[in-house]
Each structure stands twice: as C-alpha cells, then as structure tokens.
Amino acid sequence: MSHRQKRIKQKRNNMKKIIISSIVLFLSMSFVNKEDQCKDVLNDSTYIKEKKINGKINGKEYLVFEIKNRENEYDRFLLLNINSSFICNHHSLLNTNDFQGYSTNYLKLQKDGFSYSIEYGSRYYYNYEFYFKFIKNNFYLKKMEIKSFDRANPKKIQSKNKIITSKVSFERFNIENYLVD
C-alpha cells in the first residue's frame, strides 16, 4: 500500500470516528433534553399532578404521576421518576376528546412494579388495567386486564386477561395499540 493510500485510509477512519462520535453525542443530548423536559413539567404550574404513587424496588425509588395540562384538557400523560431519572410518555393515557367518558381510575403499587386503571365508554363501557414490571432500570408492560359490557345488558360482563410476551418498555408503550374494538 502506498503512502498516499495509507493517508486516504487514515482520513476515512478519522471521518468515521467523527461521524460516530457526533451521532453518539446527538443521541445522548436528545435523551438529556427529553429527560429535562419531563423534569420541568413537575415545576411548571401549567401542569397538575392528579394522582401519584411512590415505591421502592431493588433499592431503587420510583414515583409515578398522572399529569394534566390546565390549559389543554386533552394533554394528559404519565411521568415516571426512577432514582431521579425522568421518563414522560405522552401515549400512556387517552385523549378525552377521542374517548367519551374517559377517566384514569387509579395508580397502584404492585410488588414488582405498578399498575394503572382507565375506563371509557357511553353505551359500551370498557375498563383496562395495565401492569408494568420493573426490569433492569425500566418498567415493561407485563399484562393487562380488560372488562367490558353493554349498558343495555350490564349483567353480562366480559373479562379478559392478556399476558404481554413482547418486551414493551414504558417509554415505548402506546395505550391505543392495546385497546379492544
């Protein structure tokens, strides 16, 4: 290999390192900004902390908040604080504009994580409880329970438990993907 070819190869390797370093820096900055935005919500008077639970798993403290925007009733979501690391999920709750009669019933501690319950419906009523398990510094959807009935025949309740086999982290969870039509 000639001296010129070696220089060209060295320059290409240097460019690759710069590009990879830039990508890593961008991704880490994106995460920090996202985390800071979640943290800022807690100090922003525009947002109300409706419900809150706190627990401890494997020596790690965590808090789960239901957050609502005072100025936009459709802006509601869950926020997690795991050992001072913040995760917001704007797809964890439903939009009251799209789902008649929607409400978050409760947040509940579980021995290995937390669960929360929602309901919606007018004639056809639905109640969901989502269970998240703590695994390696994050929460993952592990199961859901669904109850539904027709208000014209409320004694006939349909119940279904579904174990989630795919690994869906809290931050990637989108509640609308798990609703029954």
In what range is the share of β-strand residues?
over 45%
Rg value: 22 Å
Report, as a whole number of angstroms, the end-to-end distance.
Answer: 65 Å
Structural class: alpha+beta
Number of strands: 9
Question: Order of strands across the biggest sheet?
Answer: 5-6-7-8-9
Low-confidence stretches: 23-34
Biggest sheet features: 5 strands, antiparallel
Q: Output mean pLDDT.
A: 82
Helix content: 10-25%
Describe the structure.
With 181 residues, the protein is α+β, with helices and mostly antiparallel strands. It is built from one helix and nine strands. The strands form two sheets. It has a five-stranded antiparallel beta sheet, with no helix packed on it. A four-stranded antiparallel beta sheet has the order 1-2-3-4, with helices on one face. It is elongated, with a radius of gyration of 22 Å. The termini are far apart. The model is unreliable at 23-34 (pLDDT under 50).
Short description:
With 181 residues, the chain is of the alpha+beta class. It is 23% helix and 48% strand.
List the helices and strands and how they pair.
Blueprint: H1 3-43, E1 47-57, E2 60-69, E3 76-82, E4 85-89, E5 103-110, E6 113-121, E7 124-135, E8 138-150, E9 153-163
Structure characteristics:
181 residues; alpha+beta; 1 helix; 48% strand; elongated
